[in-house]
Specification:
By secondary structure, this protein is mainly α. It has one domain. The protein is built from three helices and no strands. The radius of gyration is 60 Å and the shape is rod-shaped. The protein starts with a helix and ends in a 7-residue tail after the last helix. The model has no long low-confidence stretch (mean pLDDT 84).
């Protein structure tokens, strides 16, 4: 064999050996990676077991902080609406009573005016009868007086 070829082969092997890592370093890196993966698996298992409880606690806390005050506000609004409705019903009742009172007042006023005019009519009738029966006075009718004529009634 050619010594030059053997030398070239050795150089290539040496260069290839230089690029290789030490098996002990590879083994140490693999051991560290295994330990890291095991720690990651343990952490993942802990998170998986505690995550539902933590989510439930977070939801409960969110409900306490957000929903309960809204519920109180809704109850307050409901109470205020009930109070407003009661006041409106009371106003409606007062208004209806006032309306009935005004109608009663109007009916009384109509009765008073009607009875007053009946009294005036009766009195005028008595005056006319007494004047006609007495014969001592001349009665002029307003219609005749306006038209310019005179009529004696006695």
């Amino acid at each position: 064999m050619d010594e030059g070829a053997i030398e070239r082969a050795r150089k290539r092997l040496a260069r290839a050996a230089e690029g290789r890592t030490d098996p002990a370093a590879v083994e140490a890196a693999l051991e560290r990676a295994r330990a890291g993966i095991e720690a990651l698996a343990e952490t993942t298992a802990r998170i998986e077991s505690s995550l539902p409880d933590r989510v439930e606690d977070a939801v409960q806390q969110g409900l306490r902080e957000q929903v309960l005050p809204v519920g109180r506000h809704l109850a307050e609004v409901r109470g205020l609406m009930a109070q407003a409705i009661r006041r409106l019903e009371r106003l409606e009742g007062d208004l209806l009573a006032e309306r009935h009172g005004r109608i009663d007042d109007l009916a009384l006023l109509v009765d008073l005016i009607g009875s007053g005019w009946r009294g005036v009519d009766e009195r005028l009738g008595r005056i006319e009868k007494s004047l006609e029966a007495g014969g001592g006075a001349v009665v002029y009718r307003m219609e005749e007086r306006r038209s310019g004529g005179s009529a004696d009634t006695g």
